[in-house]
Design goal:
It contains ten helices and 13 strands. With about 350 residues, it is α/β, with parallel strands linked by helices. Bound molecules: uridine-5'-diphosphate.
Length: about 350
């Protein structure tokens, strides 16, 4: 499911932060997705190290998760629930996290209303739960809330207001994440709840499903199956890619220590790389040529996409001590070694 060494690496990096979770309880929505499953693996590892384990209640509606893999830990409870449905939890709760969402453009294009429901109704419902329990609340938003950024605002700071379409193929995701953020803002400023927002920037790593349809799983599946890598559009659109150990380190820091009411970019600050250049990079890392083709955006993919994306992460560095450590080449090496062993190569 993961690289075991990555889980140990994350737990090691969280020394001095993770102790705060000893004996605490957390409700984690969207826990069966790519990032949620990492959370459980990390918390299982932390529970082995903490004086008292952290109780984790994991909910997921299983819309996009195809795997039934679970992390075994006596302190974990798994429930099949929608984040937007009211939920009664016995006893205290110290943390509520909404990571429920449909983050792959392919899937949110196919499930626009479910996407909206997770970010808006799910966030509202879980904010109410956090309010009742006086728990700290963390919402997984997205770098997509910035839309297609003005080049004068690159790299993107948290204060950038974004350039987003209310009507368009990505609107169900961008706008619902924005409204989820507004809900956090209101519950913080009007109701005094401790809320934080995380804006992840293109997180990747072992554990991504082969049919996730984001760029790196697509490329890895194509390589495994001996098919050409398909670069959409001009191939000049850029992203920075954040290896999952760095991302998890950042996420847990926000949940544990985020300043009330604040949003944090979590991602890699570089390299900002075009998708065509990413293919060159993959060839270099693998040490061999791979077939590629430049294609029009497929109908299944929301073409109205950001031309550039690159975070400014100074806020998380200064306030939370977040320092990404895995270079792109190293992350790609770990990812492709894992996909080579776990992907089937069939589209
Ligand atoms: N992309 C691509 N080929 C693919 C999938 C994606 O060229 O098979 C491009 C896509 O156009 C975008 C980038 O890769 O510029 C990242 O897309 P992804 O779906 O991973 O996530 P996004 O950053 O758009 O949310």
């Amino acid at each position: 499911m993961f690289r075991a060494a990555d889980i140990v690496e994350i737990a090691d990096r969280l020394r001095g932060t993770a102790e705060i979770f000893a004996g605490k309880s957390m409700l984690f929505a969207g826990g069966r997705g790519f990032l949620g499953r990492y959370f459980q693996a990390v918390f299982a590892e932390l529970n082995r190290r903490l004086a008292k384990p952290c109780r984790l209640i994991v909910i997921d509606n299983m819309i996009t998760t195809k795997t039934d893999e679970r992390v075994e830990d006596p302190s974990f409870t798994y429930l099949t629930r929608d984040a937007a449905d009211p939920i009664a939890i016995e006893g205290s709760l110290d943390y509520v996290v909404n990571a429920a969402g449909i983050a792959s453009p392919f899937y949110y294009r196919a499930y626009p209303l479910e996407t909206l429901r997770a970010a808006v109704d799910g966030t509202r419902n879980l904010l109410e739960l956090a309010l009742a329990k006086r728990a700290r609340f963390t919402f997984f938003s997205s770098s997509e809330i910035y839309g297609d950024p003005d080049p004068r605002h690159m790299p993107i700071q948290e204060s950038y207001r974004g350039n987003v379409a209310a009507m368009g193929p990505r609107a169900c995701y961008d706008e619902s994440k924005r409204l989820g953020e507004t809900l956090c803002y209101i519950y913080h400023t009007h109701l005094g709840l401790h809320t934080n927002v995380i804006r992840p920037f293109n997180v990747y790593g072992p554990g991504m499903q082969e049919l996730d349809y984001r760029v790196l799983p697509n490329f890895a599946s194509a390589i495994k199956g001996g098919r050409a890598l398909r670069v959409y559009g001009s191939g000049r659109q850029t992203r920075t890619f954040c290896y999952v150990t760095d991302a998890l380190d950042g996420f847990v820091r926000v949940i544990a220590r985020g300043i009330a009411g604040e949003a944090y970019n979590i991602g890699a600050e570089g390299p900002e790389i075009g998708i065509a250049d990413l293919v060159d990079r993959i060839e270099r890392v693998l040490g061999r040529a791979v077939a590629r083709e430049q294609v029009e955006y497929p109908d299944s993919y929301p073409a109205d996409e950001p031309n550039r994306r690159c975070p400014d992460i100074r806020k998380a560095r200064l306030q939370l001590g977040f320092v990404p450590a895995v270079e792109l080449d190293e992350g790609l090496r770990r990812f492709f070694a894992w996909t080579d062993a776990h992907y089937r190569g069939t589209p």
